[in-house]
């Protein structure tokens, strides 16, 4: 479990202290490319410790690519990703896996696997040939299932579950990995609205009660603004703005990042910024 | 506290813990027992019939000189080759299917067997080589085909569909080459080639046993060491990576092992059809456990091959019917039956 303290309430006052300390995870001047296709150049991002960082941006802005680089799925062609002061590629794979967890989009539940067995696989980086299933493994798996509310589904087959339940099970698997840092690649995609909120509430809870550092890529800007303590807005592989949502989400920023005219109002529930796209007519007259 | 389904953990005070899947363990024990029983029955079968009790006595070193010759010199090597070939094909097939995440990603479908056949045919038809030379030719053919498939399918790691499609393409080309070689052959060579191509254990002796045994002794532990990583790779490369598996390395090592196992087994007994495809599927359905089921597949392969050989000798007389004919019918039929009954039971 993370030894870090509970996160401070987010806000601009916190910004300076964050900048001056060395964070556990950061990307320094990375160039990210698939084969010859360059997604981002000279990109630098710091993930503040104990934050719930959300990366947003239009399609193909490089947000998932950045997450892949941060989780050492993609090796930067230039620059480096640092985890606890070390270049992430140079660290032993299992050691990284005990510090940093990732919930990718492309996960496949094996045929005929039960919830408990799938969650149990999250214990892999803590196991070895002679230490295959300790009492600690058992305890952590039970705990992870309880935290994500899937304990009563333990003996069910994963293929029988609804999309929302299944996503909770995958999150439980990532939790069983017991990493202080957890990266989630679009965890709400393909879910109904109530399950989207459900998953985000779970993330917020993990962040607040356990002090884990969460990094998520989200599509929905309003969800991002509501749940993030630290927001990173990307466009064309560059960071356009980063900081607390209340500080950085403005109509200008949304227009610059997404090319969308909008109004920003206070979310009546939480007071966080709420993006209201301008009416079609207003956008058409502005364009002409 | 509730224990996790199906598996039992065995723990020692020293911090050692092993996880056992009880059902898989039972399946493995039963399959081994079946393989050994079929092996004993097979030794007793033939022109000179020997009761099982005498076979066991002779194997323990207490038989007459006559029995000793028949059992230890003539028939035991054949059974051992059968067991080892079956085990290698079962394990190789399970590895291929797990890495490609596709039951069609079997050596039979990917063209490895056809590659071995091409190697053997070149030796038989063009060089009229000896049995040993045919074995070497088949081995080279299998390894070259394995390498070709791997190089052609390699792009950011081997993806399942790509591997299967490339394999099918390679298979088609090699099959065409084989057809051409057969038409060039004279009648004697062609007859020899066809027997080889069906897969047969006839006339196998200790010379075939030792290389197979050494190879298995090296490769099986290597494969089992990578099995835990392979289990994680079932959930996708990204998840496995995130869990700390060196996906590319594990995959490369396991593919090389699988190609070696399959090519050697095929070189020893010919392309015995369907074992590599069916054994892992049958094993998985018996254990009902997710994961690559490597050990159950290995045992299933051995059982399937020796049982098929015994059945072919019982039904058609000694050395009348190559074992590959029976594995095709037996394995295929059993798999269809399982699929039909499972469909009724609501499982796929």
Task: Give a description of the structure.
The complex is a heterodimer of chains A (288) and B (348). Chain A is 34% helix and 24% strand. By secondary structure, chain A is of the alpha/beta class. Chain A has a single domain (12-248), classed as Rossmann fold, CATH 3.40.50.300. The longest helix of chain A has 18 residues, at 193-210. By secondary structure, chain B is an all-alpha fold. Chain B has a single domain, classed as ABC transporter involved in vitamin B12 uptake, BtuC (Orthogonal Bundle). Helices cover 75% and strands 3% of the residues of chain B. Chain B is built from 14 helices and 2 strands, in the order ββαααααααααααααα. In chain B, α5 crosses α6 and α5 (112-127) runs antiparallel to α8. The longest helix of chain B is centred in the first third of the chain and has 36 residues, at 65-100. Chain B is globular, with a radius of gyration of 21 Å. The two termini of chain B are 32 Å apart. The A-B interface holds A 71-73, 92-98, 101-114, 116-118, 120-122, 124-125, 127, 129-135, 137-139, 141-142, 154-155, 174, 177 and B 1-7, 9, 11, 15-19, 101, 225, 228, 231-232, 234-239, 241-246, 288-291, 347-348.
């Amino acid at each position: 479990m993370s030894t870090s303290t509970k996160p401070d309430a987010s806000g601009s006052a916190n910004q300076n202290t964050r900048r001056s300390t060395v964070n556990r995870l950061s990307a320094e001047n990375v160039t990210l490319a698939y084969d010859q296709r360059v997604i981002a150049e000279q990109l630098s991002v710091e993930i503040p410790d104990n934050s719930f960082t959300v990366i947003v941006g239009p399609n193909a802005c490089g947000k998932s690519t950045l997450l892949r680089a941060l989780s050492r799925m993609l090796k930067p062609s230039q620059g480096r990703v640092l985890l606890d002061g070390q270049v992430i590629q140079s660290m032993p794979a299992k050691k990284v896996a005990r510090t940093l967890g990732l919930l990718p989009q492309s996960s496949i539940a094996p045929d005929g696997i039960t919830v408990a067995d799938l969650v149990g696989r999250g214990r892999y980086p803590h196991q070895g040939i002679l230490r295959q299933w300790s009492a600690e493994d058992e305890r952590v798996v039970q705990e992870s299932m309880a935290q994500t509310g899937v304990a009563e589904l333990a003996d069910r087959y994963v293929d029988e579950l609804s999309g929302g339940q299944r996503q909770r099970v995958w999150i439980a698997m990532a939790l069983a990995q017991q990493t202080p840092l957890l990266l989630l690649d679009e965890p709400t995609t393909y879910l109904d609205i109530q399950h989207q909120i459900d998953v985000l509430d779970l993330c917020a809870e993990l962040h607040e009660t356990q002090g884990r550092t969460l990094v998520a890529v989200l599509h929905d800007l309003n969800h991002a603004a509501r749940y993030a303590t630290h927001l990173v807005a990307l466009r064309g592989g560059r960071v356009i703005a980063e900081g607390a949502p209340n500080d950085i989400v403005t109509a200008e920023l949304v227009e610059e990042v997404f090319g969308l005219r909008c109004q920003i109002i206070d979310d009546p529930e939480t007071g966080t910024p709420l993006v209201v796209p301008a009416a079609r007519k207003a956008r058409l007259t502005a364009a002409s | 506290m509730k224990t996790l389904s199906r598996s039992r953990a065995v723990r020692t005070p020293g911090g050692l813990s092993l996880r056992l899947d009880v059902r898989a363990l039972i399946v493995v024990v039963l399959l081994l027992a079946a393989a050994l029983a079929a092996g004993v029955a097979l030794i007793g079968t033939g022109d000179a019939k020997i009761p099982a009790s005498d076979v066991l006595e002779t194997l323990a070193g207490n038989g007459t000189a006559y029995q000793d010759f028949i059992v230890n010199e003539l028939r035991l090597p054949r059974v051992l080759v059968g067991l080892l070939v079956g085990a290698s094909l079962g394990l190789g097939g399970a590895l291929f299917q797990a890495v490609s995440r596709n039951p069609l990603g079997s050596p039979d479908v990917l063209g490895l067997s056809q590659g071995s056949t091409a190697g053997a045919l070149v030796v038989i038809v063009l060089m009229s080589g000896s049995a040993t030379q045919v074995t070497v030719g088949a081995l080279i053919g299998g390894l070259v085909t394995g390498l070709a498939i791997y190089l052609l399918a390699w792009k950011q790691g081997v993806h399942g569909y790509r591997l299967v499609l490339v394999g099918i393409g390679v298979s088609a080309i090699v099959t065409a080459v084989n057809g051409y070689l057969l038409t060039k052959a004279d009648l004697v060579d062609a007859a020899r080639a066809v027997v080889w191509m069906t897969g047969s254990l006839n006339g196998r002796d200790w010379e075939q046993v030792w290389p197979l045994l050494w190879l298995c002794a090296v490769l099986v532990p290597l494969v089992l060491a990578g099995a835990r990583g392979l289990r994680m790779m079932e959930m996708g490369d990204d998840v496995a990576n995130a869990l700390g598996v060196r996906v590319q390395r594990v995959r490369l090592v396991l593919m090389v092992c699988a190609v070696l196992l399959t090519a050697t087994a095929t070189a020893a007994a010919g392309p015995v059809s369907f074992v590599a495809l069916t054994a892992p599927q049958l094993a998985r359905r018996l254990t009902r456990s997710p994961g690559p089921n490597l050990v159950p597949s290995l045992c299933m392969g051995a059982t399937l091959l020796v049982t098929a050989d015994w059945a072919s000798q019982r039904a058609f007389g000694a050395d009348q019917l190559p074992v590959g004919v029976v594995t095709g019918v037996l394995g295929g039929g059993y798999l269809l039956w399982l699929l039909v009954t499972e469909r009724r039971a609501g499982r796929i």
